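Notes from the 1:1 (GR / supervisor)

We went over the backlog. Supervisor wanted to see one worked example end to end before approving the batch request, so GR pasted a single chain during the call. The sequence is below; no edits were made to it. Supervisor asked that the structure be written out right there so they could see what the output format looks like.
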Amino acid sequence: MMTVADMGYKEFTAYLEKVFNITLGDVKKIIKAFHSEMKKGLSGFESSLKMIPSFVERPTGRESGKFFALDLGGTNLRLLAVELDGKGASNVSTVSKFVIPPKTMTGAGDELFDFIAECISSFLTESNIDKEKNYDLAFTFSFPVEQTNIAAGKLIAWTKGFTASGVEGKDVIMLLNEALKRKGINCIRIAALANDTVGTLAAKCYNDRDCDMGVILGTGTNACYPEKISNIKKWRGLDPRGEMIINMEWGNFNKLRFTSYDKDVDDESLNTGCQYLEKMVSGMYLGEVTRKIIRDYIHRGLLFTNADSNAFIKKDSFLTEDMSLIASDESTDCALIDEFLKKSGLTEVTIHGKMTLKNICRITSVRAARISAAAISAVIKWTDPKLKNNHTIGVDGSLFEKYPGFSGAMLDVFKILFKEKASKIKLELAKDGSGKGAAIIAAIAATAGTSS
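Structure output shown during the call:
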């Protein structure tokens, strides 16, 4: 019996096609496992889906007024003024961007929040904001938090290079309010602590009432949806007749079939044993999974045989952006691929070699798209088992927006799974959930009278 090690080009390619293929049976298994993990997460039991309450309802589209958004998700900080007309339309009237100095990211926590307050002060001044009026602001804080109400949440742990002391375990809204007081800023009220995924849903739902899911498919991946409060068994004291958007944190879903390449990527990551779905789907990892396969072809003497055998040997030397460029090349002579390979030090690669590279990218990207579609299908089947209603899925992220054929591969899954009812599902780009969407969340909080 032929082993994987003995396989020639055709046999090895067929093997890869098989192990990376997501069949209809696989989709159904993923959906069943998702439902099990969702139920456990909502009930407070151990689950790979955290199912975090956001304390936010979907917008009605009638929210109106001027609201601010503060977006802290990395080395840049953004402030936006968003005007809502109460008829489903929104306009970003002002945007200011600030670079956070490295010493501020790694210094004392009070200094970080004083810097943020200083940025807010500059934003108000530069935008000619009337400081005699009061404004509601949503704070998009893209770090792991334990949220306890719409305007309170404790930082669990810093990520993305931040190590500011005295912040972990503290309520970040309280710390920001204290900094605003020290700066003498009295016209800002922090109405909500926002998540960019929840913001994506809010941004799309504001002008499309059929939108009942927000999804991020970019560098990372996550999703949220509105859940009946009566189903959120782990949270007591809320009106069971209402609904609340649940931040699933689905990147951590772990009931998936790993290949040896996925295992290698996980072993070499900074968070081994976590974020399984994210490592199979998101832009941060997709290029590295694909690089592992390319290296296997090279090692077997099946690719770039007349070229440098050290091509793409370094970790992260082949990126998801490279895959996107390769997938976009529809020319018969693979001119774009050829140009990319030359920049990578590979010359005189045959058409067969270029097409092999393109096929490897197709195998891994289509799997990512199908897993994403299976996860979305799981949520739709959870909320609407017989698919009676229309569902708009608001999606943000470069993978969905820019990768050739990615959304099409997702739609193919819906067609196979839901047949003629697949037309009830729409995938639509919903940009800037951390900005415009956060401002809408501030409006929801203000309208509900739950801001603090």
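Supervisor's comment: Residues 351-383 form the longest helix (33 residues).
Batch request approved.
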